[in-house]
Each structure stands twice: as structure tokens, then as C-alpha cells.
Amino acid sequence: MKGKDLINIGIFSAIYFAILFVVAMLGFIPIFLPLLAVIVPIIGGIPFMLFLTKVRKFGMIWIMSIVMGLLMLLTGMSWPPLAVSVVSGLLAELVYKSGNYQRASKAVLTNGVFSLWVAANYLPLFFAAEAYWASRQNFGQAYIDTVTKLMPTWMCPVMFAVAFVCGILGGLLGKSLMKKHFEKAGIA
Amino acid sequence: MAGLFSADIENRGLILDPRTKLFVMLTLVIFALGGTGSGFAAVRCGTIVISVLPVVLLVTAKQYRKAAFCGGAYALIKAAEILLAPNVNGVLSSLLGMCCMIFVRLMPGLIMGAYTLSATTVSEFIAAMHRMHIPQQITIPMSVMFRFFPTVLEEISAINTAMKMRDIQIGGKHAGKIIEYRLVPLMVCTVNIGSELSAAALTRGLGTKVRRTNICKIGFHVQDVVVLILTAALYGLWLLGICEVIE
After folding, report:
1. Are A76 and B106 inside 8 Å of each other by CB?
2. Where do the DSSP E strands lie in chain B?
3. pLDDT tens digit string along B28-80?
4. CB of A153 within 8 A of CB of A126?
5. I need a labelling partner for B40 at 20 to 30 A (CA). Which of A126, B162, B173, B233 fits?
């Protein structure tokens, strides 16, 4: 991997993160918070598919994934996104590598796997919930039950599945836009 | 909110080492968000103290407006959690409870993130990453990304304005085209700017094998020691709790 590849990773991370940043502003409206796992992979699919056309060497997708995890840590979204992004980034890398860094169908799948880290942002909310309620027993058990019912633990794998499926949708969207615009413009 | 690591070098009050900020961030994530050791009363009080710390840090960095806004929002959520949530009934109570539960835990980390990003320069951050022996493969993309991020946001807002003129906006006549008509121009222009940037960066020797030097001085000072001791004390309390010295 040369300097130019590393700079490319930085450029596309910036685009991806800027889009994420704009979308995440919606997350401050509580109803939209779970929807981030839907919106981010779909919209992020467009820059990511363009990024994949620049990927020719092993490690580029993996590094971008790690950079995303680090950014989540820096902006205060805890460490699980970083832990997941290290693994899912490597998996995404392997998926795209199996298509020789060329196959369009593999690229769509790669976006699905890459998007898994978005769902990992919710992990601390699920797994530390008990510790939270343990220190707030005075709120009353009935109250605690109604709130926990809104965030059952089985939602957690569902979030990952949603992120994956939306990642694939985003990949398809990105692919069609690539054909329509970027290839013609000569930047894909 | 626009700038990442866009600290005003001339006038930014107390300077902390980036590694100190990272340590405080990790502590917040472990205790405030993760709820570690919340079985012990002392750790609970300590967690509240540490949760307020980012607001104090914002004040020391002369970011008064941001400090007031973040502090106010946190106080509001915390008050709603303690006073309001257990006392209302029905659907409203569970919705309110969920919001409180999410934001009371997330807020300290988010405020710390806002502080870290607005009170650190890119050079300082890269210097700190070098000292922590993080490989070039990570530091180069990170530094490019921090350099490029404000440009992308600028382009986004310019394209937004242009598309508003053609009524391509939420609630507009052509709302369906919103994604395509905003992202495609964004991609095209940022990729072009990006390739110019990468040429500029290569001429400056980014990505060569040699060890890069950094003009920026970082290190631990008195203020770092104070913050570090304060944060480390929380771990201490937690350990004492586990060893059953305190309740």
C-alpha cells in the first residue's frame, strides 16, 4: 500500500463521516435513533461503492473500517463500534478480495458487511442496561419493566441484520448510481 | 459544530494532552455509559463527578457557549430522569424513561467528544498518535480525513443551497430526488478536490518510509496530572469496592 492509497482512504472516510454526521444529527430526535442503522448504510453505500473502485490492494477497506471505529470512540460512542469494526472490516476486505477486487456483486456484499459497525453503536445501550437499572431500583419495578420492554435484548441481533440488509440495499443503490453518473464522468 | 480538531491556537485557555483526553473519554465510556461498578454508592457519586468534568473542561477551554448549552442539556436530562420519569404513567412514562436512559448515559461521552474535537489541533492529535506508536497506516488516513472533513461539510451546505433553489428538499416538489441530486454532485466535486489534495500531500512527503517530524509539542503538565488523578481515583474507588473495603 502506497501513500496515495492511504490518502484515498482518508478522503473517502471524510466523505462517509460527513454524511454520517449530517444523518446522525437526526438521531438527537429519539425516534430516529434506531433508524440510523437503516439510513446510514443506505446513504453511505454511495460513497463506499465509489471507494471500492479505488481499492486494489489488501487492507484498504480494513483500515477505513478501523478509522470509522476510532472516530466513534473519539466522538463518545464508546468502544464496541471499534471492536466490531476491526472484525467486520477484515471480513469485508476478505469478501471483496474473493472477487479479486473487481466483481460488482461482491462489492454490494462488501458494503453489507462493512455496515455492521453502524449497528454496534447500539451495543452499549443494550448490554449495560442492567447495570443502569440496578442502581435505580427506587424507580419501581413496574416502571423498569415497561421501559426495558421497549428495548429487548433480541433487538440487538435484529439491529445487525437490519444494518446488513440495508448495507446491501445501499450497495445496490450505489451501484446503479455509479452506472448512471460516475462511470460516464470518468471518476469511477 | 462544523470543525473537527479546529482549535483556535491563540486563545484556547488550558491545554490538555490529547492522551489525557483519550483517558478521560475511556473512563466516561466505562463508567457513565457502561455502568461499571454502579453497585457501590461511592462509585456512583464518583461517576457523577466525572460526568460533569467535560463541562468543566469546556469552560477551561474558553468555550463558554458550548459549555452552557451542554451543561444545561445534561442537567435537564438528569433532572427529568430523577424527578419526572418515575412519576408519570402510561406510554409517556416509558418513552420518557427510554430517552432518559439513553441520553443520561450517552451525554457525558458526547460532551467529552465535543470538547476533544474542539480543543485539540490536528497536529497535536497526530503527535499523540505517534507517541502511542500507532502505525502510519492509521495515522495518515486519520490526518487526511481531519484535514478534508471541513471541506466536505462546506460542499454539502453549498450543494444544499443550490438544490433548495430547485425545490429539491424535504417537503419540496422534488423531494424524491433528494439523495441522488445531493450526493452525486458531492461525490464528483469532493473526489476532484481530493485528488488535488493527495497530490499536495505527496509533495510534502506524506506516505514516504522516513520518520516524519512534528513541530507540535505535547506532554503532560500540571493540569493533566490533576485530571488524570481525578479520573484514576474513580478506578481506585471501584477496586476498593470490589475488595469490599467500602460499600
Report:
1. yes
2. none
3. 888 888 777 777 888 888 888 888 899 999 888 888 888 898 899 888 888 88
4. yes
5. A126
Shortest distance, CA B105 to any CA of chain A (angstroms): 8
pLDDT score of B238 more than 50: yes
- pTM score, two decimals? 0.85
End-to-end CA gap in chain B: 42
* Residue A163: Cβ-neighbour burial (10 angstroms; 0-12, 13-18, 19+): buried
Neighboring chain A residues of B140 at a CB cutoff of 8 Å: 3, 6-7, 10
Model confidence at A90: pLDDT above 90: yes
What crossing angle do the helices spanning B136-165 and A3-24 adopt, rounded to 10°?
A: 50
Q: Hey, what domains does chain A have and what are their CATH numbers?
A: 3-182 (1.10.1760)
B128: closest CA among B247, B19, B209? B19
User: Where does residue B119 rank: exposed (0-12), middle (13-18), buried (19+ CB within 10 A)?
Assistant: buried
* Secondary structure of residue B6 in the 3-state scheme: strand
